[in-house]
Amino acid sequence: MSFDTEVLIIGGGMSGLGLAVQLIRKFGVRDFEIIEKSEDVGGTWLANTYPGCGCDVASHFYSYSFALNPDWTRKYSMRPEIQQYFRSIAEQYRILENVRFHSFVEKAIWDESSETWTVTIKDQKTKQTITRRAKIVISAVGALSVPKECDTPGAETFEGPIFHSAKWDHRFDWQNKDVVVIGNGCSATQFVPIMSGGPRATKKLTQFARQSHWLSERENPYYSSTFKNFMRYVPLAMRLYRAKLYWDMEKDFTGFNIQSGRNIRADLVKTNKEYVKRVAPRKYWDVLIPKTEIGCKRKVLDTDYLACLHRPNVELVATDPIKEIIPSGVRTESGREVKADAIVLAIGFATSQLLFPMDIRGKNGISLNKHWDSETEGVAQAYFGTCVPGFPNFFIMMGPNTTTGHLSVIYTVECQINFTLSLIEPIIKTLPSYRNRSILPSLSLFSPVPSVIDVKPEAARLDSAWTQLECKKLVWSSGCTNWAIDPKTGMNIMMYPDWQFLYWWRSIFYKKQDFVYTEAKTGKEVKPWSPSPLGLVARTAAVGLLVSSGLIATGVVDRDAVEDGVKHIVASAKELVKWR
Ligand SMILES: Cc1cc2nc3c(=O)[nH]c(=O)nc-3n(C[C@H](O)[C@H](O)[C@H](O)COP(=O)(O)OP(=O)(O)OC[C@H]3O[C@@H](n4cnc5c(N)ncnc54)[C@H](O)[C@@H]3O)c2cc1C
């Protein structure tokens, strides 16, 4: 069995970096590669450079559990600080040397005979293609890294710049210019107040909204140096603060149940309506207060957006949608022409095409899309959002049904990382970089040598059925269209329908019988969790031998006592074999 790298990770964002760090921390191995299409790590926080880009989860919780940061400057940090956080972690664990930048994974094909993945990678600069063979492949490409294409007719005729918020064109200076913004989701509500206010304000900013979102009040205080010192020096302070932030968000889950959460949602609706009416201009109340259930879409935290709608240079248009883009701007359904020097697309991401545009082929050359076509009418599903049957040694971070409507994505991905590392542990421990660390693991000569892990198809089907059933009980299925629901089948492709602490629980106490490990040499199923009696005895003896030789060398025990001990172990081993 030969390969170029033991673990190949696709994507150097939060998920890919977290995985790499935990491979190092848990197994002490460095034989992994991260393939990243951009020029740096950070993913979302590298790509989204629009003005005002920031986090909607408090930073003390939107951070890795293994890398708490006492120095967050404010409750909800802005993009540069978050990006710096991820980069500093990559530097601290010397991960950058394992990243192949400007490299795009085009396809990954499972090779049955060598039990490895052949991964085709295209260099974004030279356009050259290389292949790397890996024992294990983990996709960490995120769910929000492919911006949606503009589907408004006439885009090619527009004379000015037209760009997506995730691909901000920094050459465009909006000061005193006419700007059209299409979309009113989280990103738009962050950059509209910045573009329309201050000394660099736009002449006119016209925003077109297709749907309304529940907007809630948010304060974003700066942390004082006393607070930061408290976090840094008082034992457990950061953990306790984090636990508080966790609970403040996790308790929102009670409101998601269509039946039992009714009263909680009614209270939330009241609070949100009051907030909108207090802050936004009266003429927009109808547009800003959704008719759909609260919680159906991820709530948007108000970053001074509602207040900026009072500005004379801002107009929100919700009842006269854009019909087409014309050379000078846009023309609406009613025939109104709105002039624009630039058009900003805040239209979100292609979330329904999971792992698009990569071509991933598992056993018998079946592609992921073909697999999902035959199993779930084309809808992406995966066991624990991570494993797909027929795709051995392959794992998906932020896979189907792993998103939450109320918590941090980092929390969820860390659960997936725990789960994945626990599944691959028996395989990693047979691979050269782990075995070479110590002579002890090489005693796996006496134990099965698992080479391949796959989830059982029946287990994956049951997990998907459970997920879909549970999703039906929650607000996302209450009839509002949203990004989580596949329009064709009505299946939920994004959300995890349970408390997040139970997601963590499942990541630790998963059903081992749902997975099959096979051995390289024999191709037979093995159970790495129950080592052979001979292996057990050999390990005990080896540890005993090492300890006693140390003790003999230091003169703590005499040689005769050791001899007696060894005889006893051999006798026990014989007994054990007889008993088996
Ligand atoms: C504007 C914005 C704000 C957000 N705010 C929050 C928030 O406040 N709280 C929250 O919990 N979540 C938030 N999210 C969700 C956010 O995406 C996740 O929290 C997190 O950053 C996802 O990390 P990731 O590593 O899984 O994916 P990403 O950050 O998207 O990283 C994926 C990486 O994979 C690379 N890649 C993709 N395809 C390929 C390929 N084929 N070959 C090679 N490389 C590839 C990309 O270049 C990217 O670097 C936000 C998302 C956006 C877009």
Automatic annotation (TrEMBL):
Keywords: FAD, Flavoprotein, Monooxygenase, Oxidoreductase
UniProt entry tagged with the keyword Aminoacyl-tRNA synthetase: no
A Pfam family assignment: FMO-like
InterPro entries: FAD-bind_Monooxygenase_sf, FAD/NAD-bd_sf, Flavin_mOase-like
Record bears the keyword Flavoprotein: yes
Bilayer-crossing regions: none
Gene Ontology molecular function, alphabetical: flavin adenine dinucleotide binding; N,N-dimethylaniline monooxygenase activity; NADP binding
PANTHER family: L-ORNITHINE N(5)-MONOOXYGENASE-RELATED
Family under the similarity heading: Belongs to the FAD-binding monooxygenase family.
Name of protein: Cyclohexanone 1,2-monooxygenase
Organism: Mytilinidion resinicola
